[in-house]
């Protein structure tokens, strides 16, 4: 069964307000719902409901007879309803038995909720669709000693004690919202409190609720929240709109975090951080996710989505906003490179396989499976490409039109784009094709230089490969930032270009651009897709010498990094095809020089040490041999490390910055140190192992300690085993750090290692972070072992998936996506993947998991 975009019809009723009354008990929570309903168009009165025990139902105070309504296929239909009425329902749910972590569930003895996309129907009967918005009033009662803190959306109202050791609290949210933004948390927490005064002078109480004894680990999340609130005011003129903003951290959570109105619920991995236990990447992720969820308050909550096909309307835009936030707080080029690495690793892979789908799909089987890299990351790239296409001023103006005109509505991509058409005066209908077509466009650039005329002719063409159910693609407008480089660190002027820069919009299958330079000019070098202005693959006929020359002439840090990526990639492919041939010395020393040259920007220099990973190399080879790619990559990396040997020692001899601060500046220094630790491991010598071990023993921060552990793991010997043990003993009571301990081992071990880890006493099938720390770390970052031709890697993961699926279908479905590249594998691994997928299909899985398996096999 699939849901189709074209089948959208508005809901026939409006529900102006709703009162929810929760009586919390672990195994039998009572939910009484009272909603005022008003008919606005013809149609049936249907509510969603899943796994609910209905105790009572009445209209305007009169109980309904069983014959008055029908419950089937998770829907409750009442045949005859008045035009205006009050519906009351009383249901019982079992939060303790909720292992899917959707709806109301229990984590570490406390109640919490997750309603996006369709969890609210597991709490009460309701039209569980984002275009039905209502004013929520919530009353919660619970045992006071066990659940002293009772939270929901909006601002607190009455509270007090009840007989029998119970107490109650009321919450009111004045902003109408869809049910997916509802939240409830109850339990005993420690709170890190602070406050914020908005640009309008309004006072906001802020709280971050965490496990007892962990309050000080919430400080960074709080700092990030205040920074987010300020940034949205300054950058987009958006202020917060309630007197309270709370964040609750929970250990058992299916994804990163959730933007429930006024009550964000977070995976504790993205809240808790202390200088000794969190890496710089953790601090950075917390800042970015806290920002992301906060920014949803305007892009997602105040303006929500009409239906789930419009998911990218809130997600793509909000990812764009959080990327900009991080760029403004940290380094813009470094942020851009990291965002593109992620896009290429996850989204390009998705776009090139059987699970490819458009940013705004036309149909889906299971909505939970649409929270993808394509919707999020490519969705964000399209907003960025839009800013390049229409310019920052028109973009900013369009955003203000969007906020003004669509506030309080459930909107569509068309609504959103109409604002930018107004702001720019441009017809953006062709741009919207980007939302309808899957696949990564390939842009080919051919240059011709006419010495006599001082004219450079660029022939640009585009082609988007076929994707499932989309054979033919139309050209999309591709905004390519370009510059003409003089090879001396500057630009060359040309007619119609400014400071040697322009934006070329490739909006046809092929386009010729003439660039006229002043007479007698030397041939400039072309820099294109600067800052990765469009999410495409660029193909140019540049050989190694040409790319090295370009890298030296580049003025865009993104492209400098990207030139070296291309060079490394080509070299790794050559090493794979010529197993006897050593890595190219000249290339390796150019790579090492680039690192040295940029040492004053250590975060950037660190990125220059990262070779394209197997997942990315994989995409350019068919059939792909992950083990071969991995060993070719390691040969290049070893040579690279040897070329930097002196620098490694010099950099690591300097002390790590103290006292520890999670600042971008210190993080940059540690990133380069971490890179040097990684390269030490790549040397692979016994001396390297002992250096790593002594650095590990003395490391004063998690970034370096974990980098050492990661580097030691592939090196045989006593040092490795000792490090694994010491690390475990030191951190065994900190589950977030133990997740890392599992992940570094699964990320570099064999299938047997993954199996052993999945049988470790600390492995916990009911905790998504722990399951991912083994299964996703193995299947998504350790492709050589996962896709080993003997099929053992596939089997371990299939076993975990099958067990996980019984408890948590969303988790199992996500893990299954690691099989998405199976058709590109060399024949042995390919056959094994097929067998395993077919076995899973026959075994019978949840709807979510089946949706992925079926599409993968299709
Ligand atoms: N809206 C949340 C966020 O982007 C994620 C919710 C994920 N929901 C899901 N069913 N996968 O921050
Ligand atoms: Zn989001």
Automatic annotation (TrEMBL):
<feature type="domain" description="Peptidase M1 membrane alanine aminopeptidase">
    <location>
        <begin position="220"/>
        <end position="431"/>
    </location>
</feature>
<dbReference type="InterPro" id="IPR024601">
    <property type="entry name" value="Peptidase_M1_pepN_C"/>
</dbReference>
<dbReference type="InterPro" id="IPR035414">
    <property type="entry name" value="Peptidase_M1_pepN_Ig-like"/>
</dbReference>
<dbReference type="InterPro" id="IPR045357">
    <property type="entry name" value="Aminopeptidase_N-like_N"/>
</dbReference>
<dbReference type="Pfam" id="PF01433">
    <property type="entry name" value="Peptidase_M1"/>
</dbReference>
<feature type="domain" description="Peptidase M1 alanyl aminopeptidase C-terminal">
    <location>
        <begin position="547"/>
        <end position="857"/>
    </location>
</feature>
<feature type="domain" description="Peptidase M1 alanyl aminopeptidase Ig-like fold">
    <location>
        <begin position="439"/>
        <end position="540"/>
    </location>
</feature>
<dbReference type="InterPro" id="IPR042097">
    <property type="entry name" value="Aminopeptidase_N-like_N_sf"/>
</dbReference>
<keyword id="KW-0482">Metalloprotease</keyword>
<dbReference type="InterPro" id="IPR014782">
    <property type="entry name" value="Peptidase_M1_dom"/>
</dbReference>
<dbReference type="InterPro" id="IPR037144">
    <property type="entry name" value="Peptidase_M1_pepN_C_sf"/>
</dbReference>
<dbReference type="InterPro" id="IPR012779">
    <property type="entry name" value="Peptidase_M1_pepN"/>
</dbReference>
<comment type="similarity">
    <text>Belongs to the peptidase M1 family.</text>
</comment>
<keyword id="KW-0645">Protease</keyword>
<keyword id="KW-0862">Zinc</keyword>
<feature type="domain" description="Aminopeptidase N-like N-terminal">
    <location>
        <begin position="58"/>
        <end position="181"/>
    </location>
</feature>
<protein>
    <recommendedName>
        <fullName>Aminopeptidase N</fullName>
        <ecNumber>3.4.11.2</ecNumber>
    </recommendedName>
</protein>
<keyword id="KW-0031">Aminopeptidase</keyword>
<dbReference type="Pfam" id="PF11940">
    <property type="entry name" value="DUF3458"/>
</dbReference>
<dbReference type="InterPro" id="IPR038438">
    <property type="entry name" value="PepN_Ig-like_sf"/>
</dbReference>
<dbReference type="Pfam" id="PF17432">
    <property type="entry name" value="DUF3458_C"/>
</dbReference>
<dbReference type="GO" id="GO:0016285">
    <property type="term" value="F:alanyl aminopeptidase activity"/>
</dbReference>
<dbReference type="GO" id="GO:0006508">
    <property type="term" value="P:proteolysis"/>
</dbReference>
<dbReference type="GO" id="GO:0008237">
    <property type="term" value="F:metallopeptidase activity"/>
</dbReference>
<keyword id="KW-0378">Hydrolase</keyword>
<dbReference type="InterPro" id="IPR001930">
    <property type="entry name" value="Peptidase_M1"/>
</dbReference>
<dbReference type="GO" id="GO:0008270">
    <property type="term" value="F:zinc ion binding"/>
</dbReference>
<dbReference type="Pfam" id="PF17900">
    <property type="entry name" value="Peptidase_M1_N"/>
</dbReference>
<keyword id="KW-0479">Metal-binding</keyword>
<dbReference type="InterPro" id="IPR027268">
    <property type="entry name" value="Peptidase_M4/M1_CTD_sf"/>
</dbReference>
């Amino acid at each position: 069964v699939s849901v189709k975009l074209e089948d959208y019809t508005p809901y026939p009723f409006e529900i102006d307000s709703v009162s929810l009354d929760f009586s919390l008990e672990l195994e039998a929570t009572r939910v009484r719902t009272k909603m005022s309903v008003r008919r606005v168009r013809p149609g049936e009165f249907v509510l969603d409901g899943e796994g609910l025990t209905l105790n009572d139902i009445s209209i305007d105070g009169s109980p309904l007879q069983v014959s008055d309504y029908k419950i089937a296929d998770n829907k409750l239909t009442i045949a005859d309803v008045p035009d205006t009425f009050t519906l009351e329902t009383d249901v019982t749910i079992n939060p303790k038995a909720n292992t899917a972590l959707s709806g109301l569930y229990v984590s570490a003895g406390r109640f919490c909720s997750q309603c996006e996309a369709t969890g609210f129907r597991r709490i009460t009967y309701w039209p569980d669709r984002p275009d039905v918005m209502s004013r929520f009033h919530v009353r919660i009662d619970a045992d006071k000693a066990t659940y002293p803190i009772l939270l929901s959306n909006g601002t607190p109202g009455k509270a007090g004690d009840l007989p029998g050791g119970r107490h109650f609290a009321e919450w009111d949210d004045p902003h109408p919202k869809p049910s997916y933004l509802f939240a409830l948390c109850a339990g005993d927490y420690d709170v890190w409190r602070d406050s914020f005064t908005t640009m309008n002078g309004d006072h906001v109480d802020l709280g971050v609720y965490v496990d007892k004894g962990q309050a000080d680990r919430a400080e960074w999340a709080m700092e990030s929240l205040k920074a987010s609130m300020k940034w949205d005011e300054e950058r987009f003129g958006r202020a917060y709109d309630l007197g309270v903003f709370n964040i609750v951290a929970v250990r058992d959570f299916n994804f990163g975090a959730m933007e429930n109105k006024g009550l964000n619920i977070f995976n504790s991995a993205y809240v808790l951080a202390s200088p000794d236990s969190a890496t710089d990447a953790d601090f950075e992720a917390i800042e970015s996710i806290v920002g992301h969820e906060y920014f949803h308050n305007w892009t997602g909550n105040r303006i929500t989505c009409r239906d789930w096909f419009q998911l990218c309307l809130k997600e793509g835009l909000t990812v764009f906003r959080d990327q900009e936030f991080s760029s403004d707080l940290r380094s813009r080029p470094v942020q851009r490179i990291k965002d593109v690495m992620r896009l290429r690793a996850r989204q390009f892979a998705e776009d090139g396989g059987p699970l490819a789908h458009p940013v705004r799909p036309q149909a889906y089987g299971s909505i939970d499976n649409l929270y993808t890299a394509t919707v999020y990351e490519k969705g964000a790239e399209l907003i960025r490409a839009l800013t390049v296409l229409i310019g920052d001023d028109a973009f900013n103006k369009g955003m203000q039109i969007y906020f003004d005109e669509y506030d309080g509505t459930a909107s569509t991509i068309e609504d959103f784009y109409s604002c930018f058409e107004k702001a720019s005066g441009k017809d953006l209908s062709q741009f919207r094709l980007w939302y309808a077509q899957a696949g990564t466009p390939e842009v080919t650039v051919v240059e011709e230089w006419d010495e006599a005329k001082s004219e450079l002719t660029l022939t640009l063409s585009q082609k988007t490969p076929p994707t499932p159910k989309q054979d033919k693609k139309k050209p999309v407008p591709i905004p390519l930032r370009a510059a003409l480089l003089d090879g001396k660190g500057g630009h060359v002027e040309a007619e119609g270009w400014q400071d040697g820069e322009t934006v070329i919009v490739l909006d046809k299958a092929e386009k010729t651009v003439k660039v006229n330079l002043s007479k007698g000019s030397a041939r400039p070098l072309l820099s294109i897709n600067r800052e990765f202005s469009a999410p495409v693959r660029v193909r140019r006929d540049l050989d190694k010498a040409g790319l090295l020359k370009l890298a030296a002439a580049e003025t865009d840090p993104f492209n400098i990094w990207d030139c070296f990526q291309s060079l490394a990639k080509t070299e790794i492919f050559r090493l794979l095809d010529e197993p006897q041939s050593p890595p190219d010395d000249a290339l390796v020393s150019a790579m090492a020089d680039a690192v040295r040259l940029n040492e004053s920007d250590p975060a950037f220099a660190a990125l220059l040490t990262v070779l394209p990973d197997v997942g990315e190399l994989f995409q350019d080879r068919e059939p792909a041999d992950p083990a071969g790619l991995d060993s070719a990559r390691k040969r290049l990396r070893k040579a690279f490390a040897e070329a930097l040997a002196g620098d490694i020692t010099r950099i690591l001899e300097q002390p790590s910055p103290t006292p520890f601060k999670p600042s971008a500046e210190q993080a940059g220094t540690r990133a380069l140190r971490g890179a040097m630790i990684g390269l030490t491991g790549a040397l692979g010598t016994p001396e390297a192992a002992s250096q790593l071990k002594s650095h590990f023993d003395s490391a004063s921060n998690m970034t370096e300690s974990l980098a050492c552990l990661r580097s030691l793991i592939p090196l045989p010997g006593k040092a490795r085993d000792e490090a694994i043990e010491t690390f475990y003993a030191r951190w065994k009571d900190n589950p977030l750090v133990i997740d890392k301990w599992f992940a570094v081992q699964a990320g570099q071990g064999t299938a047997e290692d993954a199996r052993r880890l999945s049988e470790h006493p600390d492995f916990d099938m009911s905790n998504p972070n722990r399951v991912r720390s083994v299964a996703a770390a193995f299947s998504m970052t350790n492709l050589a072992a996962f896709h080993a031709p003997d099929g053992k890697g596939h089997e371990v993961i299939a076993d975990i998936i099958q067990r996980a699926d019984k408890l948590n279908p969303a988790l199992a479905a996500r893990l299954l996506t690691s099989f998405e590249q199976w058709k590109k594998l060399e024949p042995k691994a390919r056959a094994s993947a097929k067998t395993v997928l077919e076995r899973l299909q026959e075994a019978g899985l949840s709807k979510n998991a089946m949706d992925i398996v079926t599409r993968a096999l299709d």
